Amino acid sequence: xxxxxxxxxxxxxxxxxxxxxxxxxxxxxxxxxxxxxxxxxxxxxxxxxxxxxxxxxxxxxxxxxxxxxxxxxxxxxxxxxxxxxxxxxxxxxxxxxxxxxxxxxxxxxxxxxxxxxxxxxxxxxxxxxxxxxxxxxxxxxxxxxxxxxxxxxxxxxxxxxxxxxxxxxxxxxxxxxxxxxxxxxxxxxxxxxxxxxxxxxxxxxxxxxxxxxxxxxxxxxxxxxxxxxxxxxxxxxxxxxxxxxxxxxxxxxxxxxxxxxxxxxxxxxxxxxxxxxxxxxxxxxxxxxxxxxxxxxxxxxxxxxxxxxxxxxxxxxxxxxxxxxxxxxxxxxxxxxxxxxxxxxxxxxxxxxxxxxxxxxxxxxxxxxxxxxxxxxxxxxxxxxxxxxxxxxxxxxxxxxxxxxxxxxxxxxxxxxxxxxxxxxxxxxxxxxxxxxxxxxxxxxxxxxxxxxxxxxxxxxxxxxxxxxxxxxx
Length: 474
Ligand SMILES: Nc1ncnc2c1ncn2[C@@H]1O[C@H](COP(=O)(O)OP(=O)(O)OP(=O)(O)O)[C@@H](O)[C@H]1O
Hints:
The protein has helices at residues 18-31, 48-57, 74-84, 99-107, 120-142, 161-175, 190-199, 221-226, 243-246, 262-274, 300-305, 311-317, 334-349, 358-366, 372-386, 394-401, 408-415, 420-442, 447-454, 458-469; strands spanning 9-14, 40-45, 62-66, 90-95, 112-116, 180-183, 208-212, 227-228, 240-241, 251-255, 276-277, 286-287, 291-296, 320-323, 355-356, 391-392. It is α/β, with parallel strands linked by helices. It folds into 3 domains: 9-142, Rossmann fold (3-Layer(aba) Sandwich), CATH 3.40.50; 161-325, P-loop containing nucleotide triphosphate hydrolases (Rossmann fold, 3-Layer(aba) Sandwich), CATH 3.40.50.300; 329-469, Orthogonal Bundle (Helicase, Ruva Protein, domain 3), CATH 1.10.8. The strands form 5 sheets. Strands 2-1-3-4-5 form a 5-stranded parallel beta sheet, sandwiched between helices. A 5-stranded parallel beta sheet has the order 7-10-13-6-14. The chain has a two-stranded antiparallel ribbon with strand order 8-9. The longest helix is centred in the first third of the chain and has 23 residues, at 120-142. Mean pLDDT is 85; it is low at 1-5 and 404-408. Adenosine-5'-triphosphate binds at residues 155-158, 184, 186-192, 255, 297, 337, 340, 373-374, 377, 470, 474. Adenosine-5'-triphosphate (ATP) is lined by residues 155-158, 184, 186-192, 255, 297, 337, 340, 373-374, 377, 470, 474. GO terms for molecular function: ATP binding; DNA binding. Residues 156-385 form the Sigma-54 factor interaction domain.
């Protein structure tokens, strides 16, 4: 898909304050990344009435309007624009004291809002996202196909308002050939969401290739990602496809994109923009048909400001964004998730456990879940494993939620029936799982802080997480 347009992208700015107009001009001129041939034109009107006149006379791709204007207000203008053409994205601008009105406007169909006083980076980021999204949807409208009947979300449990929003976003992004960024704390289900996007997209019949960006150090990593040709370096005895090409005609899931080393970020950006990949040691650029979904639990904008993440890659990724709220902010999903995992583990362990008692559910709902859905899954798994009755009751749940306070004697007793080697393996596994979970809990799921307190490099900590907190077949 080429996003390069021959006609300029035209932004209508409705703003009566000359200083703010100047600020916009500077942000657009100096901060906004754009394709080589792309031109951005800014048309300014001081009043809503003037803005409407311009809209009637010429094509406008994006409107940015102050909420407070002399004469017709920004909100009325939003309404009038939507009456004319509901596809034009409108960004509302307000002072902090009017931010409620701006949020209200978003509920009524505004695309986004910006709060004064502006920060150049934030301003450019929001304008850029609106530009790219309006292009993506314009292209999609050009080749509109009948909407397929909505598939049910088989594996994605939770139907509260937050998850419904997430599911609606999944359906939106799956229909357009754009890179998606999923942002959420560890264990919120980002990989599961990425799979759901893949399954609902045109690439569903192709592979779903996971690329764990925490495992790349500079150097050899480039060939792992992009492949190499025979003789490219010592040990390259034959041509080898990279992880990205292995996702051809399917989806490449870039997990923990925030951890990708800077040199690879530059190369990945080229791949995302050119849709071509060049193997190490090769001069040939190979065309690539791949959907990219990236995920992070880090604040990428903050990383950009610290010089740890490339601004151009951030802008490129920060277009189709899905925020997955932490489990503590969608507690309404806890009962259905808990029962889902109960079903899974009773089958796996062959134990006929009928239900989780209401008092036990109350405990589960009250707990803050710093490890999110993954931690809930692990608690239910252990509850089923240890259960001696046909229901899970409150005391079992309370014990498990505070497992880190258990004496080490009990864990040994639990495994005494096993031969030495097996018992050691199981206890070590349990230690790793509890240790990592407790460290994550203590840092509200922040992997960087948890790893630092554990005295482990972040990639190594992450590797232990993958091994002991994640499971095969997830
Ligand atoms: N909504 C959900 N319904 C069912 N299972 C879920 C849901 N969300 C997460 N899970 C399960 O929780 C576990 C963790 O999910 P996943 O690995 O997708 O999280 P993540 O956000 O990618 O984590 P990390 O940031 O640590 O890589 C998996 O077992 C996944 O199947």
